[in-house]
Structures are given as C-alpha cells and as structure tokens.
C-alpha cells in the first residue's frame, strides 16, 4: 500500500468517526440548557468542575430512559432522577426550557413527561448543574436568582452541601 493510499484511507476513517459523533450525539456535552440550546438523548450536561453529569440513562435490565444526575466516575451511582414516575420508552427524549421558562422533559411526540412546574414569567431562564449536585433553573437576567432547584425535590440520596428544608408547597420537611 502506498503512502498516498494510506493517507486517503486515514482521512476517510477520520471523517467517518466525526460523522458518527455528530449523527449519534456522543460528542454532545454542554454546560447549560437555554431556550435555544436543548439536551437531546444521549447528550450530557456537566457541572463546572466535571464532578457530576446530568443526562439520559437506563437502569440495568431496563430499556426505559430517565433523566438523572450521577457522579462522573460512575453512571450507576445516580443521586437524583427527574422523571422517575414517567420514563421515556426510547431514546427520543429531550430536556429543554419551555416557552413559559420551565425545565421540561419531552418524548419524541413532544409530550411533556416532567416539568419543573414553577409559575414564572422568566423567558430568560437557564438550567445549570452545580458541582454540589443541585440542578437549578435560574433567571439569567436577574443576577442569576434561583427559580427552581432539585435540592428542594430530593430523591433517596443526600449529597454534601445539600440542605434539607421544608417544602413550601406541602408544608412538610
């Protein structure tokens, strides 16, 4: 094989790998979700220090898809799940900021399966994953004030820096 045919073969291989990444979404890792930037399965939202990830996952022996937070070193140690009661049935899921400023998880039919469900008129809201493990919806234009946070909706895990407080809607701790 000549040097020039090896170069062409290498070039074609590199192009195929790049196209595969764009087609499958494996190269998708973002640091925020905005009204113009959504997170599609299998995309990942990373905390600033890369300690935690938020994304789509399937538990062992299940084809259902969930949106959750896990430590970077192990996708099996999930510390929070958004749509635990309404899993996605396939990999068509998307996490986005809806027109009313909420974080929503939608399936391929654009059905909302989960929402942060806050009354807000903040169309400039963005969603971020903090290194503490808190997934937050903030008002981007109003000094980054928190509109909603996952720490106020805990699952079965308590993480460092997490403060448990009384739920203002239910009155329970």
From TrEMBL:
Keywords for the protein's UniProt record, in alphabetical order: Glycoprotein, Signal
Listed CDD domains: B_lectin
PROSITE patterns: BULB_LECTIN
Endpoints of the signal sequence: 1-27
InterPro entries in the record: Bulb-type_lectin_dom, Bulb-type_lectin_dom_sf
Domain Bulb-type lectin: 30-150
Entry keyword GTP-binding: no
PANTHER family found in the cross-reference section: BULB-TYPE LECTIN DOMAIN-CONTAINING PROTEIN, NON-SPECIFIC SERINE_THREONINE PROTEIN KINASE
Protein name, entry field: Bulb-type lectin domain-containing protein
Source organism (scientific name): Solanum verrucosum
């Amino acid at each position: 094989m000549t040097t020039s045919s090896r170069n062409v073969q290498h070039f074609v291989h590199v192009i195929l790998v790049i196209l595969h990444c764009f087609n499958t979404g494996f190269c998708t890792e973002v640091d925020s979700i905005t009204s113009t930037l959504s997170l599609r399965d299998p995309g990942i939202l990373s905390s600033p220090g890369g300690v935690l990830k938020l994304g789509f996952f399937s538990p062992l022996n299940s084809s259902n898809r969930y949106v959750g937070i896990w430590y970077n070193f192990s996708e099996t140690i999930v510390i929070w799940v958004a749509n635990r009661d309404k899993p996605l049935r396939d990999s068509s899921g998307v996490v986005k900021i809806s027109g009313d400023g909420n974080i929503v998880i939608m399936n391929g039919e654009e059905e909302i399966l989960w929402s942060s469900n806050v009354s807000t008129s903040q169309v400039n809201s963005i969603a971020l994953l903090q290194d503490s493990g808190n997934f937050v919806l903030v008002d981007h234009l109003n000094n980054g004030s928190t509109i909603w946070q996952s720490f106020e909706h805990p699952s079965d895990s308590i993480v460092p820096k997490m403060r448990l407080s009384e739920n203002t809607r239910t009155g329970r701790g």
